[in-house]
Design goal:
Strands 6-5-4-9-8-7 form a six-stranded antiparallel sheet, with helices on both faces. A three-stranded parallel sheet has the order 1-2-3, with helices on both faces. Strand 8 and strand 9 form a beta hairpin. It is built from nine helices and nine strands. The protein is elongated, with a radius of gyration of 30 Å.
Length: 314
């Protein structure tokens, strides 16, 4: 019944979609002050505000629509039942579309922020878990719409068999198990079909995509979602999967470089050993000493391993 009450209600209910707002309440411009409060103090750009007035002379339409961030202006005399119905439906659709646009914007921002984070992992298991975590976060951005209770798993093609690398939700216990022992025949069929086509596959509540690295390694992401996956969800999931594919490609390349470096070091060590057997044993001892001392001084396992493999070249 007043501008003060309106401010309190909208502050307590920020997910309000539509506000039919009188201009004149406890003062002649109470409604206009409420508009400023919502847009500037609450920073709420989503609620659709329809200003209503029975005294248009006090708040001329052209001046009000220019000076205040409202979405429509109606004189009370023109708000018949049909006009009211049309106005409300149009406003609700605009509210929905604004949320979808905002969600897509924030989803793209999250994908961009995720890329450097998942690129830093040096273990396939760690990377798979991180990919599934970010996938869940992507589906559950706080956007005022229905959230998704999701279950997902990451599958690799290893020695001619699909092998579960990580899982979340209903698949949280499938890690390090063969796919055939981890889930239902229907899910197995979808994952195998995705490995065969290397194309995204989805329906209302499922998403599955497989991708192949340059060295021939295959990986797949399978997702089940409690809410219906819309077209914009498919597009975001495809984009995120491309990022995940690049991360695994990068990790494979790093592993190949590490393997090559280790092979070179081993070969040089063998050459030393062939010429001076005791020198070869000395190199091995120094390598082990370096690793043990590194761990004792608190270095990470990864850094200690690097030191172990580098020390033979001293």
């Amino acid at each position: 019944y007043s501008g003060a009450e309106t401010r309190e209600v909208i502050r307590s209910n920020p997910d309000t979609a539509l506000l039919l707002l009188d201009v004149v309440m406890e003062s002649e411009d109470a409604g206009l002050k409420v508009v400023r409060y919502i847009r500037e103090e609450l920073n709420n750009p989503f609620v659709r505000i329809i200003l209503r007035t029975g005294q248009p002379g006090q708040a001329p339409e052209k001046e009000v629509i220019s000076a205040y961030d409202i979405n429509d202006y109606k004189e009370k005399t023109e708000l018949t039942s049909e006009r009211l119905y049309t106005t409300i439906m149009a406003s609700l659709r605009a509210y929905r579309d604004l949320h979808l646009i905002d969600r897509n914007r924030r989803s793209l921002e999250q994908i961009v922020e995720t890329s450097p984070q998942i690129m830093r992992y040096s273990s396939f298991g760690q990377l798979a878990n991180e990919v599934l975590k970010h996938l869940s976060d992507l589906l559950n951005l706080d956007n005022g719409l229905q959230t998704c209770s999701d279950s997902s798993m990451f599958v690799i093609w290893d020695r001619d068999q699909p092998f579960c690398l990580a899982g979340r939700g209903d698949f949280s216990d499938v890690g390090k198990r063969q796919l055939r022992d981890a889930t239902t025949n229907a899910v197995i069929h979808r994952v195998l079909a995705s490995f065969e086509t290397l194309k995204p596959m989805y329906n209302d509540h499922e998403y599955c995509v497989a991708f192949q690295s340059a060295n021939g390694a295959k990986h797949a992401i399978y997702l089940q979602c409690s809410r219906t996956l819309e077209q914009q969800d498919h597009e975001l999931l495809d984009l995120f999967s491309t990022t995940a594919s690049a991360a695994f490609e990068n990790l494979h390349l790093n592993k190949e470089i590490e393997a090559t470096q280790k092979e070179i070091i081993d070969t040089l060590g063998e050459m030393i050993e062939c010429r001076f057997r005791e020198m070869g044993n000395h190199v091995r001892r120094v390598s082990e000493y370096a690793y043990i001392l590194a761990m004792k001084t608190g270095m990470s396992e990864e850094d200690a391993e690097l030191l172990k493999f580098a020390s033979p070249m001293h």
